[in-house]
Amino acid sequence: MIQAVKQTSSSAGVSWDLRDLYACVDDPRIADDLARARSRAQAFEAKYRGRIETLECSRAADLAAALEELENLSEEMDRPAVYAGLVHAAKTDDPRHGALLTRVREERTAINKHLIFFDLEWVKVPDEPAKALTTHPALARFRHYLEHKRVWRPHFLTEPEEKILDEKAVTGRAAFVRLFDETVSTLQFPFETPAGIETLSQQEILAKLYDPDRGVRQAGAKGLTKGLRNSARLLTYIFNNLVLDHHSDCRLRHYEHFMQSRHLANEISDQVVEALMTAVERNHGVVQRYYRLKGELLGLDPLYDYDRYAPLFPDLPECDWSQARQMVQESYHAFSPRAGGIIREFFDKNWIDAELRPGKRGGAFSSSAVPSVHPYILMNYTDKLRDVMTLAHELGHGLHQYLSRPVGYLQCDTPLTTAEMASVFGEMLTFQRLLEMYPEPRIRLALLCSKIEDGFATVFRQVVLTRFEQSLHQARKDQGELPTEKINELWMKANQPMHGDVVRLTDDYCWLWLYIGHFIHVPFYCYAYAFGELLVLALVQKYKQEGPAFVPRYLDLLASGGSDAPHVLLGKLGVDVNDPAFWDLGLRLLDAMVAEAETLAGKL
Ligand SMILES: [Zn+2]
Questions:
Q1: Are 296 and 601 in contact (CB under 8 A)?
Q2: Ion ligand 1 residue ranges (Cβ < 5 Å)
Q3: With 80 as the cut, is the pLDDT of residue 303 above it?
Q4: What is the pairing mode between strands 376-378 and 189-193?
Q5: Closest alpha carbon to 369 in 53, 41, 17
Q6: DSSP H or E stretch at residue 192
Q7: What contacts 398, CB < 8 A, 6 or more positions away?
Q8: Rounded distance, CA 498 to CA 547, Å?
Q9: 84: which of 37, 104, 301, 519 fits an S-S bond (Cβ 3.0–4.6 Å)?
Q10: Is the pLDDT at 5 greater than 70, yes or no?
Q11: Gap from CA of 397 to ligand 1 centroid (Å)
Q12: pLDDT tens for each residue of 541-577
């Protein structure tokens, strides 16, 4: 839950040691590194600008040398930015941290200006000589980096056109995105209580949907809608405008359809996305079976939309930091002693910041930092069983980032579709361990239900959001500017099939698309979540089938980072994402989890 952050926990004193990056915020090496990165970037530009595109620098060995230098200096340039980001996240209210972050970011932007020419020129190299270079053994280490940049080649405009688009986007697209963010973040929501009406922020009103008291949830849903309706005209206008802006981008850049640019960035084909989405939609029955069970457990019939997040068992046991550490370490160790050893390092060497601290950023993340150092993890550990899963999740990211360091800075990051692979896999390992620790049916059922609900949120809901987005873009294209009521209709139509006749969607529900930022920030972002989650569930199934033989191949997959397209890397594990039947593997696991919840509920 989001509200009322607890201020003490067993994680007190668990803070990270950032000295592997810099000694402190006043460390003179920060300025030194930036100065050196700047002069290297200037030298890089002087040496290569105008020589990539014209193929003056067309010997594979020369290009390899250029890429080595680009990689090394990028790492040098980013190291201060990583450090500044981490100290700021750990204590945002220290003005020295904010000042450092701003200074370092500005400097980084200035340095980066000397480097952008490289990719732009590389993309302009004609196909034939480019192919000779990307397949040359001297460039083997950078092959995927070079190839992937070129997928944008057919969609680039001329340099003056790109410059104009870039400049006009500041007052166009970017301005509307900011207007959306500022409008949504300052919305106020009326919450009706017997004592009168309170005015709440978005976070506070959303938290009411998780309340055990149905009256509170209902008032929360009403208040959420009221707050959104007050700004519906402005938000609808922003949606209409940004959808149209996306369409003109697609037209000018010669994309075949609205989702193509997202698919290219995700390194995924149209067919795979459609196969994934239809497989998910064929399984709406699983969602409905679960909500029928939840309705029975809560004693609610019918179940309304505002009941979906009601807690089943609000009084779960707590788990302190040392128990959590032990459980997570053991679950990774049981999977692979090598992985367990790496996880241990995170704890032993203080790469994790888990304590609660005023001014600390909320949520959790794992920062890959830079390959010459190691990842760092931030989370807020509040002794809840949920936090154990968060710890396992972030350590999964950490393991992935740690193992992929040798691939190098330019290729260690994965696309969105496989970015959550190791984290969700790690969660599943720890989840099994948690189930073993708590044999009592009530606790097991609570754990299982929260896992199922997370799975629904990342698989089924994201596909619904994507279908809604598709219909929104199509309707905007066919019918011109859309009134709020029309978009409400599209939203309800996209949501209905998943909820069936098991969850009743109230009239208040039809406004709930208005504040979803993914539609505004990155069009068609959502399906990647479903891809990632189902992929992991399928990998879990494979691990169950293949046992220890799976382990080294999985660790190799993590170690390859983003050095090839996901379907190629996954192919080495015997996974074929192009096979529509593949997606059923993960869906069957979700189905089995719901069946287990039904069995456990029978034992209560
Ligand atoms: Zn994650």
A1: yes
A2: 423
A3: yes
A4: unpaired
A5: 17
A6: strand 189-193
A7: 343, 346, 351, 366, 375, 377
A8: 34
A9: 104
A10: no
A11: 7
A12: 999 999 999 999 999 999 999 999 999 999 988 889 8
